[in-house]
Design brief:
Helix content is about 50%, strand content about 15%. A hairpin with a 5-residue loop joins strand 1 and strand 2. It binds glutamic acid (GLU).
């Protein structure tokens, strides 16, 4: 028989206050912790073993946090000093796994929010990966290849001692793509004298990378959005979609949407957005962003009459059936959500990590919009990273079709798990509750089995 604990909610609220107190000036981490803890009351009440003192307290405290100096020289010989981070949050399910973000907004609180999210996201994939995240406040924008290389080499000169294929496996995130992973891997190999393919994922296809890894986050999010629509008897074909961002996630989201017959009409960067009535031409976008490392206004200039650049605007004002935020945290607030609802949006699925603010999520859910939280919807990237680790371990590489089939199966299974879990806990259709509880159950079971560590 289940004992209901009327004090569960109070205990969680007290823990949240304590988290805020013990981790001052980390608003993004507070937000991520609150978002998860607020949904856990029903599972803690139903499963008394999870309410064991110390379990949730251990979950919100990273196992290890590394902060280090990253000095490097620019092309003119000037010395710069950045800060490097790696937060090894939870390894109950496998080696710490999660990307590295290079962006001026990075600080310890941002990395902790990302690492915390990663625990549940990685658990939802069903694969054997723990949660971690890292990065630096280094801004790669406007830097030469040689500067980026020197920065990556300096960063890895400290990071190498904390990572390893059985310990902690970083990958990319904002500001870290194939070029950076190459430089990081090179320096790791040089320092350790080990050709240890499984220490990083997102490698080039010719030297240990997995096919479909670059596409995986965006493709996976589109598959998740399609699954949510299917649940409501609809599909993506013919749907007008808005996508924010123009990095790796946004590009492959747009590519998959187009392939499935939807019409993705926007992309953006910090300077504004592009709206293209004919649908974003993904080859042109790749040329501008990935080859030339340019900005989205250049896309609009080259595309011709169908596209225009709106300086300073937000894509959420463009009417759409489906919205896929794929830029960064807190990029979609309550006002944006209200605009989307006014224009009749049916589904919002997070390609980025925590792009919708709590108020926005609440508003969308109240309006009956299907909402896919990032830790479920964008898990395709890290899932294919885990498949890359499997290939590295077996010293083999799989054809693209095999990886894509596995990705599709994983996304379908994450959708089903979240949907069923939400229903089981009395919130049918609430993917936020479903994702948090399902991720939590898997990690909590492993933590309980492995004792107080
Ligand atoms: N940075 C990605 C994420 O947010 C991918 C992490 C990985 O592949 O390890 O999930």
């Amino acid at each position: 028989m289940t004992t209901t604990r009327p004090d569960t909610k109070t205990a969680l609220a007290r823990l949240l206050t304590e988290i805020e107190h013990r981790n001052p000036a980390q608003p993004e981490f507070h937000q991520a912790a609150r978002e998860v803890l607020e949904t856990l009351a029903p599972v803690l009440a139903a499963r008394p073993e999870y309410a064991e003192p110390g379990l949730v307290e251990r979950l919100v405290e990273p196992e290890r946090q590394v902060v280090f100096r990253v000095p490097w020289q620019d092309d003119r010989g000037r010395v710069h000093v950045n800060r490097g981070f790696r937060v090894e949050f939870n390894s109950a399910l496998g080696p710490y796994k999660g990307g590295l973000r290079f962006h001026p907004s990075v600080n310890l609180g941002v990395i902790k929010f990302l690492g915390f999210e990663q625990i549940f996201k990685n658990a939802l994939t069903g694969l054997g990966i723990g949660g971690g995240k890292g990065g630096s406040d280094f801004d790669p924008r406007g830097r030469s290849d040689a500067e980026v290389m020197r920065f990556c080499q300096s960063f890895m000169t400290e990071l190498y001692r904390h990572i390893g294929e059985h310990t902690d496996v970083p990958a990319g995130d904002i500001g870290v793509g194939g070029r950076e992973i190459g430089y990081l891997f090179g320096q790791y190999r040089r320092i350790t004298n080990r050709w240890e393919a499984g220490v990083l994922t997102g490698k080039g296809a010719g030297w240990g990378g997995s096919l479909i890894r670059p596409e995986a986050t965006g493709y996976g999010n589109v598959l998740f959005a399609a699954a949510m629509l299917r649940e409501r008897g609809e599909d993506l074909e013919g749907q007008t979609t808005v996508v924010s961002g123009s990095g790796n996630v946004a590009i492959y989201t747009i590519e998959k949407l187009t392939a499935l017959g939807a019409n993705p009409v926007t992309c953006s960067d910090s300077s504004g957005y592009v709206v293209d009535e004919k649908g974003i031409d993904v080859d042109l976008l790749k040329q501008v962003k990935e080859v030339e490392r340019g900005r989205v206004d250049t896309y609009a200039e080259r595309r011709g009459a169908s596209a225009r650049f709106v300086p300073g605007g937000r894509v959420w004002e463009v009417p759409a059936d489906v919205a896929l935020p794929s830029a960064t945290q807190n990029e979609l607030d309550a006002q944006d959500a209200a605009a989307l609802v006014r224009n009749g949006v049916k589904a919002v699925s997070e390609g980025a990590n925590m792009p919708a603010t709590p108020d926005a999520v609440h508003l969308l859910q109240q309006a009956g919009v299907a909402f896919g939280p990032g830790k479920a919807a964008n898990a395709g990237g890290v899932a294919v990273s885990a498949l890359e680790m499997a290939q590295n371990h077996a010293r083999t590489s799989w054809p693209a079709a095999r990886v894509e089939d596995e990705l599709a199966a994983i996304m379908t299974s994450i959708h089903t798990t979240c949907h069923e879990t939400a229903t089981r806990y009395g919130n049918p259709g609430d993917y936020v509750t479903g994702a948090n509880i399902a991720g939590f159950e898997r990690v909590a079971d492993a933590m309980l089995a492995q004792g107080v560590i």
